[in-house]
Amino acid sequence: MKILFDLQGGDHAPEALLEGARRAKEELGITPVFAGSESQRELLTSEEAPDYLVTGSVIENTEEPAMAIRRKKDSSIVLGMKALKEGAVDGMISAGSTGALLAGGIFILGRIHKQVRPCLPVIIPHGRGSTILLDAGANMDTTPEMLLDFAKMAHSYAKVVLDKDPEELKVGLLNVGAEEGKGDRRSQETYQLLKESSLPFHGNVEARDIFLGECDILVTDGFPGNILLKTVEGTAGFLYHLLERSLKESGLSVEEMQKFALVMKRALSPLDASNQGGVMLLGLKKPVIKAHGSSNGKAIFSAAEEMVRIIEGNVIPSMEDEQL
Amino acid sequence: MKILFDLQGGDHAPEALLEGARRAKEELGITPVFAGSESQRELLTSEEAPDYLVTGSVIENTEEPAMAIRRKKDSSIVLGMKALKEGAVDGMISAGSTGALLAGGIFILGRIHKQVRPCLPVIIPHGRGSTILLDAGANMDTTPEMLLDFAKMAHSYAKVVLDKDPEELKVGLLNVGAEEGKGDRRSQETYQLLKESSLPFHGNVEARDIFLGECDILVTDGFPGNILLKTVEGTAGFLYHLLERSLKESGLSVEEMQKFALVMKRALSPLDASNQGGVMLLGLKKPVIKAHGSSNGKAIFSAAEEMVRIIEGNVIPSMEDEQL
């Protein structure tokens, strides 16, 4: 199995990508292929060098995605996706621009079905495992039919990526109340579609219950999905700031402060992004994993592990079948 | 100034209401009037008793609001609002059902202007004061015009209720990105309306920045508004749970744990709901404050303080003018 690693995206590129890829070769038996600049090629061993894709430009996170994909034909994202489309590699892992990966995926790889909108899941860790939330912000003004498609794709993905008996997976609909009939028109109509579908529908789930693990897949439009995700980030950051300030003002000894800092660090470890590999972009014809921008070597290795499960678990063929 | 206190709503009713009202009489010089059951009347002093409104039924939080208002004509919410409408009292404070207060407000008190949708703000405390977020979940499927109305009403309210120079108030639009053009169609259109309005528009604000105090008023539809609010609650609860668990597993001494528990308690005190009185329901012809269900006497007193500022600051006449 050949997996392409994009050396040009992420805060810790290229080192984190190289480290994760090499560990994946060692432990998972995959063959890493790299895309990067002429100078980055020198970081490779002679064994890694032959398939190297030499890039001539870099797509920045701030660029308008569709425009960047059209203009920067020699970027790692475009070259990598072309190799993926042609079958030179079986999957691609990048910590680069989410927007460019989605736009490139749509233009170069194509969609599994013409009515499907590719979307972006995120994995939210909680007390009882993880929940896949989607869409995290790639699609606005979605219809109930699109949300049903998101749920179906996430269901195929969750079977392979969540450590859970696939028979026990539950799909929830993000809403402002738990009862049927709650929410805006889109939510009410999506509720009916999910209820009538063959998916294991659990009903509405309120945002305050996201960490209770009530459902494994939580479906919503990209607007509220993005609001939810960024509210988690903002709230966690604010509470951390409050705790740090309170600790500084506490008058505790240095030793006591260190102990408490350790308690805080351990407490928050389930939220550490490096424990998560990344997320698959759903709806594309070939497997692409978007790793977090802050990914270290361990996170890239986790992403490679996930890629192996996705390919061996036939996630994309299963999604194609679910759309019929 | 006569303020009506609803003895039948809230987790700590009637004690918290009585305590807050009596303190408000003492310190603010208001005249409290109470609505409650025949048996609650016995809790009053002879001086407090004359204007007492005797209720015969109670509206529960679980009831369908409009139905409850129509059927329970002798509930504290209906009797209180009638007294408010007739001018027997100048304002009303209740920790009862938000939905019933809004429905009662619309049916009994009426709206400041026929096109205005009454809405529910919440006050989010942060490092640099507080931000008023609205709508918190009362209105779904709003139009850009409705959101502009929300912003105008919140502006009149914020001038009086936030501890800030009214000239420095800023209005933000909750969105998935900071740049103009981001978001769904409603957000894009609302952005233009706010930009063209005479309001001090600050632009889009991302959910991750809610605690940075970038804006004083944050406008959004009730669906994402409610998702944001409940995500803050859910995230804070989850982090607290993680910290508590980590502390228990830390092997620290009892004395150390007590010290750290105090650091945590102090850290989180800015989020304590009892520091906030409550929020005014915006768009009604008379002032109604919805206090948090968990309000204690201190919170009810804060609500009374807010009511005095709302009445003396002519918030409702100012809102009526802004709608012209």
Short description:
2 copies of one chain form a homodimer. Chain A is an alpha/beta fold and 324 residues long.
Please explain how this structure is put together.
The structure is a homodimer of 324-residue chains. Chain A has 324 residues and is of the alpha/beta class. Chain A has ten helices and eleven strands. The first copy, chain A, has a six-stranded mixed β-sheet with strand order 3-2-1-4-11-10, with helices on both faces. Chain A has a five-stranded mixed β-sheet with strand order 5-6-9-7-8, with helices on both faces. In chain A, helix 1 crosses helix 9 and helix 2 packs across helix 4. The model of chain A has no long low-confidence stretch (mean pLDDT 93).
State the major sheet of chain A. 6 strands, mixed
Q: Give the spatial strand order of the biggest sheet of chain A.
A: 3-2-1-4-11-10
Task: Report strand % of chain A.
Answer: 15-25%
Number of helices of chain A: 10
Mean pLDDT of chain A: 93
| Structural class label of chain A | alpha/beta
Helices and strands of chain A, in order, run as EHEEHHEHEEHEHEEHHEEHH
Quick one: how many beta strands of chain A? Answer: 11
The dominant shape of chain A is globular
End-to-end CA span of chain A: 28 Å
Largest interface: A-B, 55 and 55 residues
Oligomer: homodimer
C-alpha Rg of chain A, in Å? 21 Å
- Helicity range of the residues of chain A? 40-55%
Low-confidence stretches of chain A: none
